Amino acid sequence: MKVLIIGxxxxxxxxxxxxxxxxxxxxxYVAPGNAGTANELKVQxxxxxxxxxxxxxxxxxxxxxxxxxxxxxxPLVDGLSDYLNHNGVPTFGPSxxxxxxxxxxxxxxxxxxxxxxxxxxxxxxxxxxxxxHYIQSQTFPLVIKADGLAAGKGVIICPEIKHAKATIDDxxxxxxxxxxxxxxxxxxxxxxxxxSFIAVVSNTQIIPLATSQDxxxxxxxxxxxxxxxxxxYSPAPIINDQLHQxxxxxxxxxxxxxxxxxxSPYLGFLYAGLMINExxxxxxxxxxxFGDPETQPILMRxxxxxxxxxxxAIKNNLRDQEVIWHKEHACGVVIAADGxxxxxxxxxxxxxNTNETSQMKIFHAGTKKVGNDxxxxxxxxxCATALGDDLKSAKQNAYMLVDDIxxxxxxxxxxxxxxxxx
Length: 422
Ligand code: AMP
Ligand code: GLY
Description:
Blueprint: E1 2-7, H1 10-20, E2 27-32, H2 35-38, E3 43-45, H3 53-62, E4 67-70, H4 73-77, H5 80-86, E5 91-92, H6 100-103, H7 105-114, E6 122-125, H8 128-135, E7 142-146, E8 155-158, H9 161-173, E9 184-188, E10 193-202, E11 205-208, E12 213-214, E13 217-219, E14 223-226, E15 231-234, H10 241-261, E16 267-277, E17 280-287, H11 295-301, H12 306-314, E18 329-336, E19 351-352, E20 360-364, E21 367-370, E22 373-376, E23 380-388, H13 391-403, E24 405-406
């Protein structure tokens, strides 16, 4: 079999690494990939951009490719799955219609309301003056979200009204998020602990993957601006059996059934970002893809075949699938560039002095090869990921990997996993 992974982040490195382990897979191509996928056994990078649908379809039919997994949201939202399926290429990833769940926060909030899926109270605004007027009567903190895609940075938590006013100015007047900020969702602030619930979905069939928890804030103790994710661990002990069932009943099932009613049946990874407060669960957001960095620890724990699972989903045949997990825990620590999530430098040479094992793996994200060197090319650069008998030892192993990596200005959180260590 030949597999093609679309994307160039840490998630895509982990997807390619996992697919390459499959005996039935001869080659995994990654378009365009990074320095990590370039060095992976059985994996080959392609100089094709994720936005070049025509070139992707052409490559797929020439090979031919047996399975495409689309990693990031943008090509999904832009209709890559629809395009490839139309060209007869077996593709795992939702249609653009189904991906609206992530593409538009106002769409997803209206969807939650319509299908009775628990989520924070909200209003949607497309004008500066109406948004300004609304916040006068609200209690704080208050959460302001750009409607469209903003690489995980479009959510601003405003502790006081003056922050909310500045944020509304930023979005509507200074156009901080461009067209993604033409509308905003303003919603009430929820307290609790966050967890990521990610499943493989094919129409009404749902196979939940191992639970995980991300760390969205840039700095230790959840301080600083929101990022795409600074580290993750799996499993998330906060999701006990009872909560697991509750999430299936109150969130996942009504969502996949609602999507069918909206004429957008789902195929792909479906990611619910949840806020959990005792037995109360609320959906913060849906993503139409695997999480980054959740993919890295989750896939390190996956023992059974991902390729088989995706193929079964494409054939709408998940009923016979069983996903087997290593019982070890996994922890992934993101190493970011100086300045991330704001402006950051690229082109810094990375020195690796590490011994990867089957228990310890460095997944690349913003990296590229320049001659024999690996240099930084993005904000989130690497994700040092490790297994351990419990979360504490997985964490220790992951930080041991981090210790052996060096580049100018690198920064990472020191507390990844702490919330799950009881
Ligand atoms: P989202 O992209 O909607 O998941 O938001 C990004 C992050 O902002 C979440 O992971 C939470 O940490 C935070 N967040 C979003 N919405 C809320 C809310 N209503 N209350 C508290 N925190 C929130
Ligand atoms: N880790 C959060 C995300 O993938 O959106």
